[in-house]
Amino acid sequence: METSSRENTHFFSNNTILPVDRSSFKSESSASKEKQSCCGGIKLFLGALSFVYFAKALSGSYLKSTITQIERRFDIPSSLVGVIDGSFEIGNLLIIILVSYFGAKLHRPRIIGAGCLIMSAGTFLIAMPQFFMGRYRYERFPSTINSTVSLSPCLQNKSQTPLSALEKSQEKINAGCEKEAGSSMWIYVLLGNLLRGIGETPIQPLGIAYIDDYAVEENAALYIGCVQTVAIIGPIFGFLLGSLCAKLYVDIGFVDLDSITISPKDVQWVGAWWLGYLIAGVISVLAGIPFWFLPKHLPKPESRKDSSTSSEHSKFITEESKDQHTSSWQQAKLAEMAKGKSLEEVILSLACLLVLLFCLTDFLPSLKNLFGNPVYILYLCASIIQFNSLIGMVTYKPKYIEQQYGQTSSKTNFIIGLINIPAVAFGIFSGGLIMKKFGIGVLGAAKLSLGSSFFGYLLLLSLFAMGCENSDVAGLTVSYHGTKSMTDYEPALLSECNSGCLCSRNDWDPICGEDGVTYISACLAGCRASRSTGKGTVFFNCSCVGTSESSQSSSAVVGPCQKGNECPKMFLYFLVISVITSYTLSVGGTPGYILLLRCIKPHMKSFALGIYTLAIRVLAGIPAPVYFGVAIDTTCLKWGSKRCGGRGACRLYDSSALRYVYLGLTLVLGTVSIFFSVAVLWVLRKRSSPRDETLSANGERGTCGTKSRKERFVNSDQLIQSTYWPEKETRL
């Protein structure tokens, strides 16, 4: 240890510009100890912040993995699930300005710790409805549930069913209607996600700023890169956790699992979605504990104490000395307002003062200057439209895989977590590596970003040919005679073969006939006898199940029929193209963000990034899941029904229509964003000289306009934020 310390001291002294004499050894030794103390404190903060990024990324991705589970559990359409998903962004936007402004003046680590507690409280709130809305009920014919009464699926008349059984069934329905208010408990999921957004707000701005303030300048970029790397690992574990919980029945631990007559392949299956939220909430609590013991300030490194860089931070320090008079006047004014006034009056006065200061500052001129930059505006429009495409695609990708290829929720989440997300991480890394290796400047970054989007959406176009045909469902996709149904769906549910049965068209209890056709219920299949109970139930004498030889011995089993033989092969092709597409689109993320940084003036960097992030969240993060959900709902063939009436969650989608709507909407938005990217490249070519296209070895960079050599120079502290790509967790 002594040898290492002496070597570090010797190295430090050799790199010092000031002359060294014997009297300076003591001061250098104390400086070295201070540096070690500083590094130790910042590394503790770095470890804690990385764990928090992991926790928030895990809980966010887990929500994406439970979209279909929440939809089925609460019997709500996809559009409403989209509102729940967008509530996180709403909560984040509610306090982002207050946190960004006041957070830097308060104890930042403790504010982050409080945010973790709020985030965990929201995560726990999402899981709470499971414990208050009773057991999950799925639609099943009574004979497939362990019952002592033997019932015929085709009730030719009510006298076949014992009165006591009908009365008990009606009593259960009435009891369910009395508790139907429990179906509105999805509101708690929305509020919990809103609370998650509020708690997550201080983590990024305060955490990154804390590292930037107290880390050694040359290490800051590395530290922030480590945090972002851990943030990419979070979604992997989030989807894997979703895969594990989707295998478990929703009421595990509360019911006898042997009595469950549905399997994970059934569209009515709901996994233990709530269990993952409890785990994520505990992780968030643990992640917030270290911040309560970290100091408000850390000793600044020696390299930052006396250095006068041209960075944005030093600019504000210079301006601070000029505005000391104004600052002291504001403090005196605040103290005067607080005297003799209630809390409400003080808050109102503070709000009025903030609005006044907001208007008196250079906000409006800065905003005008920013929006007067054509490259910034065009790139902002391209990013908004592209993130609409990507956020909508990612939100409903699990649903698309389940409905299009007949995969279970567990397998879908496992594939996304283990294949797609690593491809995204590798794509982000590759984009930065290409930028560095080939010394790409502004025009090169614009070309790389455009090429990434173009080839990514071109690959996405090929997915239109990699879908599965609709399953043969009698009365919906095919007629009861085996021909493709071209008429209206609802009237086609009843046919001559089941006209003598008292069947409900609202039920969804699918069975698979021996003819390979799925029937909505045993009653609509005309089945008159059944044997055994539970998952092994077999129905006999089904008049609608036709075979080429004889229909007298026609039978059916519980559950829908499998997709066609070509579907597994198409699913494999889809996975390959999906991974390549994810990688290709992600390659352009880092160059695009570098382009954004280099096309604005250094002193407007934070303001421009703030407007960019705000626009992405308001115009993409909130609306995209909603209108994607509305579009997907239009492809539903069979809606479930709630116990007391009303439309529930969709049970069956038109595979072809779903493919065209989901991929088509994604592709149209992506194509529009490409046109804006082409416009960005055109403006850059028009305004840049040939020498701006290259990145020289001494750190000069091309800019978006014809500026002086000094103005084009971007120093190292601006590169600190270049490793951060906002909303990159959603570009999966």
TrEMBL record:
Annotated ranges, domain Kazal-like: 491-546
Similarity comment: family membership: Belongs to the organo anion transporter (TC 2.A.60) family.
GO cellular component entries: basolateral plasma membrane
Catalytic activity of the protein: L-thyroxine sulfate(out) = L-thyroxine sulfate(in); 3,3',5'-triiodo-L-thyronine(out) = 3,3',5'-triiodo-L-thyronine(in); L-thyroxine(out) = L-thyroxine(in)
PROSITE patterns: KAZAL_2 (PS51465), MFS (PS50850)
Molecular function per GO: bile acid transmembrane transporter activity; sodium-independent organic anion transmembrane transporter activity
Mode of membrane association: Multi-pass membrane protein
Domain Major facilitator superfamily (MFS) profile: 45-688
PANTHER family the UniProt entry points to: ORGANIC ANION TRANSPORTER, SOLUTE CARRIER ORGANIC ANION TRANSPORTER FAMILY MEMBER 1C1
Protein name: Solute carrier organic anion transporter family member
Gene Ontology BP, a term: sodium-independent organic anion transport
Region annotation Disordered: where it falls in the sequence: 300-324
Family matches, as InterPro entries: Kazal_dom (IPR002350), Kazal_dom_sf (IPR036058), MFS_dom (IPR020846), MFS_trans_sf (IPR036259), OATP (IPR004156)
Top-level taxon in the UniProt lineage: Eukaryota
TM annotation in the entry: 83-104, 111-132, 220-250, 271-293, 346-364, 376-394, 414-434, 446-466, 570-597, 609-632, 661-684
Cell location: Cell membrane
Pfam families (alphabetical): Kazal_2 (PF07648), OATP (PF03137)
UniProtKB keywords: Cell membrane, Disulfide bond, Glycoprotein, Ion transport, Lipid transport, Membrane, Transmembrane, Transmembrane helix, Transport
